[in-house]
Amino acid sequence: MATGSSAPAEETAERPPAREPASPPRLLRDLSLSAVLAGVVAVVVSYSGPLVIVLSAAHAAHLDAGRTGSWIWAISIGSGLTCVVLSLRTRMPVVTAWSTPGAALLVTSIGSYAYGEVIGAFVVSGVVTALIGLTGVFGRLMRLVPGAVVSAMLAGILFSFGADVFTSLESAPVIAGSVLLAYLLGKRWLPRYAVLLALVAGVVCSAATSELRVRLDHVGLVQPVFTAPAFSVASLVGIAVPLTLATLASQNAPGVGVLSASGYRPDDRLLVGSTGVVSAVLAPFGSHAVNLAAITAAICTGPEAHRDPRRRYVAGVACGVVYLVVGAFGSTLVAFFAGLPKELVAALAGVALLGALSGGLAGAVREEKDREAALVTFLATASGVTLFGIGSAFWGLVFGIAAHLLVGGRLRGRRRADAGAPAGQPAPASS
């Protein structure tokens, strides 16, 4: 399944061997400003929004500054390592992050347990996620989902971000308007650098309107704090079980879907299994869950990262490197990202995701027989509904598959034009 956004010339480009490692010379040859920028934008979006939920959970647990900083360090280092290693290993733009719905669950539950028991639940959740990924159970379930449903889920996830470009015009017309105008002009004259132009225009206008409040009061490395895990039935039932379900359903499922909808063939055992292992290893330092990203991944998997899908893995590497830098300095650089105007972040994320959104919409309506199921998926996902603590991306899949079964009569696996292509490589673009 391909997005259909690649140029025809890309279809005839020489395909690299399936498992050839991305060696430093090759990485330097594939390096591009647009891919690096996509990785940076993904990190900005991550720290400007979802991190607030993690900080709220840390506050609910009454953690001191040391343990809070260690938590930020753990999820940042875990995300950075998995981004870099998995992107180089698969030569796909693999973007990982911390579990936002998992952190949201913790806000209301973490204060009921001793912190050692919370850490024990994090460890168990990581181990269970790794086992589900490495055994292939997760992948077998995902491969049964029709391609139109996956594309519609992607479009539903990204819809609100595209709409935020225009809602931001109400509160900050100069900032959001400059981002949109610079992007559109860039797409006409310098398409590879449209997002860069949008970023520059937004920062300049933010500074001109005195909305840019970034500061670095103190620069220092984080000292990770180790907490010995403790185990109790109550914490396993109250934290580990819902955290695992939320991470798999609301993060890893759409994360695999984003890669698939962008024309890649992700190795679910490697990706989900690896993030589960890293989560378990870093749990004693505070990491609640490291998983595949969906929204920020779409920034790095779309044509804005690079017109050649085979060179977009650089965006995943760049994202990982920035994660590692931010993680090393912890709250120092987090304060920097927090100083960016929310309208700038919203507008920048929106224009950076337009290509991925259009690809998702195109894939959702390509086959007439799947359009009803795709529409149900899109509406359910875009609604933002949360049921039983699980986000709308998962329910979009559930309702979309149900509609597909009711309308089509049976569940079909995804038909891929590149069935014989090596795993991990982009599918040929559709005409």
Describe the structure.
With 431 residues, the protein is mostly helical. Helices cover 66% and strands 1% of the residues. It has helices at 8-11, 24-30, 33-48, 51-60, 65-90, 100-109, 115-134, 137-142, 147-171, 173-189, 194-208, 233-261, 268-282, 295-301, 313-329, 331-338, 342-352, 354-365, 371-383, 392-408; strands at residues 96-98, 290-292. A two-stranded antiparallel sheet has the order 1-2. Helix 3 (33-48) packs across helix 17 (342-352) and helix 4 (51-60) runs antiparallel to helix 5. It is globular and about 60 Å long.
Question: Assembly type of the shown chains?
Answer: single chain
Number of helices: 20
Strand order within the widest beta sheet: 1-2
State the low-pLDDT regions, or none: 1-19, 413-424, 427-431
Q: What's the helix-strand series?
A: HHHHHEHHHHHHHHEHHHHHHH
Beta fraction of the residues?
A: under 5%
Task: Provide the residue-averaged pLDDT.
Answer: 83
Q: What structural class do the secondary elements suggest?
A: mainly alpha
What is the end-to-end distance? 12 Å
Give the overall form: globular
Q: What proportion of the residues is helical, as a percent range?
A: 55-70%
| Count of beta strands | 2
Largest sheet features: 2 strands, antiparallel
Q: Over all CA atoms, what is the radius of gyration?
A: 21 Å
